[in-house]
Amino acid sequence: MGSHIEAQGNDVYSSKFDDDGHSKRTGTWVTASAHIVTAVIGSGVLSLAWAVAQLGWIAGPSILLVFSVITLFTSFLLTDCYRYPDPVYGTRNHTYKAMVKNILGGIQYQFCALAQYTNLVGTGIGYTITASISMVAIKRSNCFHKYGHQVECQVSNGPYMVLFAVTQILISQIPDFHELSALSIIAAVMSFGYSSIAIGLSIAKIAGENHGMAKTSLTGVIVGEDVTSQEKLWNSFQAIGNIAFAYCFSQVIVEIQNTLKSSPPENGAMKKATTAACSITTMFYILCGLLGYSAFGNKAPGNFFTGFGFYEPYWLVDIGNAFVVVHLVGAYQVFTQPVFQLVESWAGERWPQSKFTTKEYRVGIPMVGTYRFNGFRMIWRTAYVIFTTVLATMFPFFNGVVGLLGAFSFWPLTVHFPIELYLVRTKVPKFSLLWIGVKLLSAFCFIVTLVAAVGSIIGIVTDLKTYHPFK
């Protein structure tokens, strides 16, 4: 009788929980591919027309495809490391950092954490810049419509960065990340919305009465006519960084794979999801990049919606920019919450007896409910948002910052760690053909990262010569 009850208990346990004690996962390759697409298609698409214009009809699409194939390949390597040591029956790695810690350990884990959190902080700064210039673009678009395109309609970014920061300070006081799930869904819808508007406006411009007037070339912007030879070189490097930023989604692969149900095996389902998502994403990127270049030619703006290649219909341009702002309000929180949690967990462990760091006070808010207030959380999160806003105000250069973020995150998070994880897990012999091949791939991507970083830094330095912060 006792053994029968025990058997029943095990059946109930297995029906509600997975092998690691977590609640039963229900994700499929379809839901996983949807998560990847919504995580990837973001503000990076806004710079792709400019990036293709710097590189031309041959190098532009080629680099887009090369980055797509490399990202797909290294994502496959990551999916096989979700369970360790066996890819089907091994112990789960719930996060990217946990995977690096469990398989590589030591200095590699510290390097991974540094790369991840640098990227998270940088992305918050980049999103503050992008959101503010989209808000400025709405104001300027209405000004152009009212007074004509010949009017300068100058508007300062500063007040709009402050507005975005105030919004983020308020939202960041929500104590639990899962309470932001609705905001994340809205953000995903917005990203599809403005990407689709950008594609639609490009097609309309190509098909319009000015068709044929946009000058393009096989090698992109022309030296001596559009840019100097030095500008051509640095802009091309920066464009590579912009494309790399658009493909930096490997760091969320592990977390998404952790939502999949155990059967069929997670690595097989995840490979299917990654293939589908990467194909959809690449199609979107090629449409945005190539149609944007066709529409604007070598004069393609750095940002689809804020460079004013599109003036009319002004209301649709406004909607596109509004979608960008709403998306980035949610996206900022998605990328910032891990930074919040890191510092708050550290403070709780460092001062466990301090009421300031650990105690929560329940405050009733009419028509909202009960808010859990914590002094450390309020001050730390507010200070962090102010910090990213100040840096964004000092360096409000969309393409340069996006390129730099892409350069810093692509090689370590998308290429280096997936390759090293796979080599250790599969015990690939040193100097075997496979070992040499993936090491050469990593070295190539490292060089590309350095080139993109140099181009982006020079672009930022050049912009700083004519920009005065806080004025």
From TrEMBL:
Top-rank taxon: Eukaryota
Q: Where are the transmembrane segments?
A: 32-52, 58-78, 180-204, 275-294, 314-335, 382-413, 433-461
* Keyword Ribonucleoprotein recorded: no
Q: Where is the Amino acid transporter transmembrane domain?
A: 25-461
Report one GO cellular component.
plasma membrane
Report the principal subcellular site.
Answer: membrane
Q: Which InterPro entries match?
A: AA_transpt_TM (IPR013057)
Q: Where is the signal peptide?
A: none
Q: Which GO terms fall under molecular function for this chain's record?
A: symporter activity
The topology of this chain with respect to the membrane is: Multi-pass membrane protein
Per the UniProt entry, what is one GO biological process? Answer: amino acid transport
Q: Where in the cell is it found?
A: Cell membrane; Endomembrane system
What keywords appear on the UniProt entry?
Amino-acid transport, Auxin signaling pathway, Cell membrane, Membrane, Symport, Transmembrane, Transmembrane helix, Transport
Pfam families (UniProt xref): Aa_trans (PF01490)
Q: Fetch the PANTHER family from UniProt.
A: OS05G0424000 PROTEIN-RELATED
Function text = Carrier protein involved in proton-driven auxin influx. Mediates the formation of auxin gradient from developing leaves (site of auxin biosynthesis) to tips by contributing to the loading of auxin in vascular tissues and facilitating acropetal (base to tip) auxin transport within inner tissues of the root apex, and basipetal (tip to base) auxin transport within outer tissues of the root apex. May be involved in lateral roots and nodules formation.
Family indicated by similarity: Belongs to the amino acid/polyamine transporter 2 family. Amino acid/auxin permease (AAAP) (TC 2.A.18.1) subfamily.
Q: What is this protein called?
A: Amino acid transporter transmembrane domain-containing protein
